[in-house]
Amino acid sequence: MLKGIDPLLTPDLLRALAAAGHGDVIGVVDRNFPAHSTGVPVIDLPGADATQALRAICALLPIDVEFQATPVAHMLTIDGEPGPAVDEVHATLVAAAGREVPMRGIERFDFYEGARSARVVVQTSDDRPYACFLVAKGVL
Question: Is residue 22 annotated as a catalytic residue, yes or no?
């Protein structure tokens, strides 16, 4: 056990975050997302929603706000609108980064494609539809 690290950050997740380099993408997805069909490693965080998972992850992972115009993508609904988790997650990312974190919405199938190139996909138990995010790792 380590002090000061959120218990949601499992050994496998800590290893994946530490191994990620600048620009690598971490996917954080809801319970409905077909994570295992992406072909990338999947880490399950049962009992956590996307907000809780990203709060824990971004306490350690810098977001690439310096080199990418929009370092975070979120899945849009079928109507092209942000999902119900987006505002809460955005506030969480801003708090973690200590500055504005630009986000962009992308269509569902474009999100699936983006998740296939992620370093890892973290599957939460979030019940909120479209609670799916791609976060690019920055530098310290």
Answer: yes
Pick the CATH number of 11-136 from 2.60.40.1180, 3.40.1650.10, 3.40.630.30, 3.20.20.140: 3.40.1650.10
Q: Is the distance from CB of 73 to CB of 106 less than 8 angstroms?
A: yes
pLDDT digits (tens, 9 = 90+) for 4-18: 999 999 999 999 999
Output the six-digit token pair for 7: 């218990």
Catalytic residue among 22, 36, 74, 90: 22
DSSP state of 22: T
pLDDT one-digit tens code per residue, 93-113: 999 999 999 999 999 999 999
Whether the pLDDT of residue 140 is over 90: the answer is no
What does the alpha-carbon distance between residue 75 and residue 112 come to, in Å, rounded to a whole number? Answer: 9
